[in-house]
Amino acid sequence: xxxxxxxxxxxxxxxxxxxxxxxxxxxxxxxxxxxxxxxxxxxxxxxxxxxxxxxxxxxxxxxxxxxxxxxxxxxxxxxxxxxxxxxxxxxxxxxxxxxxxxxxxxxxxxxxxxxxxxxxxxxxxxxxxxxxxxxxxxxxxxxxxxxxxxxxxxxxxxxxxxxxxxxxxxxxxxxxxxxxxxxxxxxxxxxxxxxxxxxxxxxxxxxxxxxxxxxxxxxxxxxxxxxxxxxxxxxxxxxxxxxxxxxxxxxxxxxxxxxxxxxxxxxxxxxxxxxxxxxxxxxxxxxxxxxxxxxxxxxxxxxxxxxxxxxxxxxxxxxxxxxxxxxxxxxxxxxxx
Amino acid sequence: xxxxxxxxxxxxxxxxxxxxxxxxxxxxxxxxxxxxxxxxxxxxxxxxxxxxxxxxxxxxxxxxxxxxxxxxxxxxxxxxxxxxxxxxxxxxxxxxxxxxxxxxxxxxxxxxxxxxxxxxxxxxxxxxxxxxxxxxxxxxxxxxxxxxxxxxxxxxxxxxxxxxxxxxxxxxxxxxxxxxxxxxxxxxxxxxxxxxxxxxxxxxxxxxxxxxxxxxxxxxxxxxxxxxxxxxxxxxxxxxxxxxxxxxxxxxxxxxxxxxxxxxxxxxxxxxxxxxxxxxxxxxxxxxxxxxxxxxxxxxxxxxxxxxxxxxxxxxxxxxxxxxxxxxxxxxxxxxxxxxxxxxxxxxxxxxxxxxxxxxxxxxxxxxxxxxxxxxxxxxxxxxxxxxxxxxxxxxxxxxxxxxxxxxxxxxxxxxxxxxxxxxxxxxxxxxxxxxxxxxxxxxxxxxxxxxxxxxxxxxxxxxxxxxxxxxxxxxxxxxxxxxxxxxxxxxxxxxxxxxxxxxxxxxxxxxxxxxxxxxxxxxxxxxxxxxxxxxxxxxxxxxxxxxxxxxxxxxxxxxxxxxxxxxxxxxxxxxxxxxxxxxxxxxxxxxxxxxxxxxxxxxxxxxxxxxxxxxxxxxxxxxxxxxxxxxxxxxxxxxxxxxxxxxxxxxxxxxxxxxxxxxxxxxxxxxxxxxxxxxxxxxxxxxxxxxxxxxxxxxxxxxxxxxxxxxxxxxxxxxxxxxxxxxxxxxxxxxxxxxxxxxxxxxxxxxxxxxxxxxxxxxxxxxxxxxxxxxxxxxxxxxxxxxxxxxxxxxxxxxxxxxxxxxxxxxxxxxxxxxxxxxxxxxxxxxxxxxxxxxxxxxxxxxxxxxxxxxxxxxxxxxxxxxxxxxxxxxxxxxxxxxxxxxxxxxxxxxxxxxxxxxxxxxxxxxxxxxxxxxxxxxxxxxxxxxxxxxxxxxxxxx
Lengths: 337, 944
Fold this sequence. Notes:
The complex is a heterodimer of chains A (about 325) and B (about 950).
Chain A: E1 2-4, H1 9-17, H2 23-32, E2 38-40, H3 45-71, E3 75-79, H4 93-98, E4 105-111, E5 120-127, H5 134-138, H6 142-147, E6 162-163, E7 166-167, H7 173-176, E8 182-187, E9 190-191, E10 194-195, H8 202-208, H9 239-245, E11 253-260, E12 269-275, E13 286-292, H10 302-328
Antiparallel strand pairs in A: 1-2, 3-13, 4-12, 5-11, 5-13, 6-7, 8-9, 8-12, 10-11
Helix pairs in contact in A: 3-10
Chain B: E1 2-7, H1 32-41, H2 44-56, H3 67-99, E2 102-107, E3 110-115, E4 124-128, E5 136-142, E6 148-152, H4 154-157, E7 162-166, H5 176-181, E8 184-189, E9 200-204, E10 214-216, E11 221-222, E12 227-229, E13 233-240, H6 246-250, H7 260-293, H8 311-323, H9 331-348, E14 362-363, E15 377-380, E16 387-398, E17 401-403, H10 414-422, H11 425-436, E18 441-444, E19 450-453, H12 457-468, E20 471-477, E21 480-485, E22 488-498, E23 506-513, E24 519-525, H13 527-530, H14 541-552, E25 556-565, H15 567-581, H16 587-598, E26 603-614, H17 618-627, E27 631-635, H18 640-649, E28 659-664, H19 669-686, E29 692-698, H20 699-708, H21 710-719, E30 722-726, H22 730-742, E31 747-751, H23 757-762, E32 765-769, H24 776-780, E33 783-785, H25 790-830, H26 841-851, H27 867-872, H28 877-881, H29 888-911, H30 920-942
């Protein structure tokens, strides 16, 4: 490090000539003369090698710890959209799912590979579903979600802003396409309790969705999208809707369904009774059910650990290469300029 | 176009010419908004941003709130409009003050106090001592019985001496009352901007009949914005008023200079624009295809079955808006801001204050600091720029005898002092010429000491020297001149003054000795203007040698001569002179011709040698800057030998054998051509050798070379690192600047006098030295400094830092915009190419306005190397000259950097956080903070 703070004796002479009363005046003088003290790192080869080495030494352990934590999370992912179509409809899935007269129940059997500690989170995952499409993202009205029918301007909700001449609450494509598959979990003939409260953000429940706002005129149109809502429950308690309304960033996403608050033992077999209502067949989307435990780092995610290890090891390699180059052709001090 | 002005005539010519209403305003209250907007929108960048902002009003396609573009756009417009309005308001106030100033004017024969703006052409205006002249006047009366008055012209040409002005002969002796009723016609040319020329005629009408056309020159006028001094009152006829005065005509807004860096930024902006269009077309097409193949199947998006005609355009336009942030809206504003800070740094610099006069350096043009670092050629004036322009009489040669050769100071030479006391006629006459043949005005200070006010530094030096040699110029009263010599007072009547012009290169006076009545002609001038006119019998060899010897020493020489004139000859010549002085066409040329008829058969008395000392630090400055790869050309009006000597003494050229000086001369085309070719040949051969080759050319040969052999001369200019051009006129100086500019070199012109103004205005950077020749050059220049040696600091410190900082700042601005734009583009790939914006309006605005624009301001006080290092190793400047910090390849580097950083930030924010569980707002915030950290890291890394 080389600290430079006003050089030359000429400056001192000037400084003497101009009496400097206060600190502020001095700082202003330094500023006007472009002489503010500065700290300048000198990038010597040894300095660089040390920095890279240090980076590697810090990053690799962090990466390993993260990777280990991620591996300790147990995840069961089961795709069910293809299985849950009866044999005879396999040729025409879309007409099957659109036929509201057919009861679409279906059963899955999941085997728990390892002991899973409560709470076990239940997610549904949709693939190839563009919740981030521009038409979709924009089609909502936050004012209406909070204030209900009092907010009149619902033009942003088009094309699902009104039906039969009456406004829709909640309006917009997002609410209209609400996910409506339901799941029931049974272990050894006794039903597992699924806690479906508190799956949405607290701030959303309290501040974004109104406590006095009830669904109105919802799914009454000619073309019904997704699930319907109980008109007697205020929006702030419709947690499935709240979760769904938080649009996902990626075309394949998971959303929370609920929590199982019991441990699951290894080799337990869990029967899932589900209602396969939601249409992903028309655009080739996939539906998956996910059961996952969690760690202090959240869910299963190897990327972070791998990235840390990768960056750490590459900086060690770089530092080694630099060190070798430096040992082979050392550079004198004077050549730095 | 000629003007006929009827003096004191209220009916005619009233509305022919404009009233004396000054207006420097660009706008009026009514047209301000449209005119200012029109001006701002004539810039391409602003048109672009306006288009984007208008597109954003269409809610179907806008990805973000239109406020995110309208806000900054309106802010930027408001800032520059406010600045314009403020400037214009100040101009209005100063105009108003000038317009409403009260002056005494004769209207209908009565003297009235009216506002200055009501003065009409033809009105008689009365001025009192220390009044400012409201418009251009032709003098008709003064308080002085001789008809003389004194004016200070500092505001006009920057010269601080007093100038004498005379009333025309026809009005001589008219009394106070008569002047109120005077009638007459003035014939003069239409308004022009030449403040040294006025060729008019005056004819008085009955009852003031004089029957004679009386010539008017600039000597008979007092021009607007001068001040009346040492004269109780004066009155004159308004000839030019309002914006048609000489001063008003010279005013004008010089065209703005564009720096190399600005040009490069414009180019890069263009490139980014093209890139943006390509991205938009590709993504737009892909988006439309995806929409038709995929999105229609997605029932939840609910695409309508029928769509309007513009449907195909919607997605490309959305991408256009998404990508519009690629070109940072704030770049112009922030660059303007930091540039004015650089200029302030120059103003503030304590090390560039002239210790003698306490004048700080000043940057008039705040926009071109970074160009200073890219200068390749410096064209410098000699007198006053390299030298101090403080003339001291050092040596002389009288009648073949050299004085002052031993001591180096003729004033202390015993031989000369003895010759004076012994009354040697040659010496006495020599001193008389020194004291009489000039335009110096002696003024008595209150203490009784005599102060000399002179336009020419040389004349002042001569008069001072004469005074020290006991020949004291005591008083000059109209045409009577008093000289005190050894206690006795000699009186001379000045009959005519044959003025100095740069063509004649000499001046003479015709004087009559009041004692004896003898008329004689006293001349002084350059050797080539005097020696050829010596009378046949005289040997001029010794004088030629003296001139040679003195100029070898770098002294300025003047030859003094005289001859007696017979009364008859004078009378005859006087008529011719009078006639020539009253011609309207080619007056200068005619006068010169008439003067020639008297200035012959001169008896040469001797040669004076005046020293003009080099300024402090000139050789070091030239050497340092030359090491920094800057080429120097010296352009001077002085003669060849003096120029070469000065050049040698200030390291400009190296003496033999290290250096070689080639000369281009010749009087005819052929000679010049041959000599040019010879020099070119030598130059080509010697470019490989480590030898300092320079060429020297005089004004005459230069004229021919520029006219007929421009190509060869251009080649020579490129080959030669050093050149000396002597005896060049102001317009030739400007031509040389043009020549170098046409070869794509960055030029800096530095000078101090009025003759350098044109070259200063033409060059990429004009630097004026606020010196003794007035402030004219300093006013016209982009930078004014007190001493030549500050140039080193100006270029190496201020220029270099400005260049580095601007290069960083501009590329960084593109970097940060591209960074966020690339992330938007990547996101569009995973959002079905529908043009969704990952970031919301508030974060985008905050990113541009707050997070990225404030931290980077640190770079404006960043120094990569200390000032001392730069001064010691001026070679570092090569980097800036070659534009290595801002060019397409460095820009490509920044482009790649932003692409890489965008990929890293995007991949990490998608994967690390929660992958499938990530929600849009979360990802957007993570990516935004990633961008902010990355750019902060870049700023920290790049500032040293």
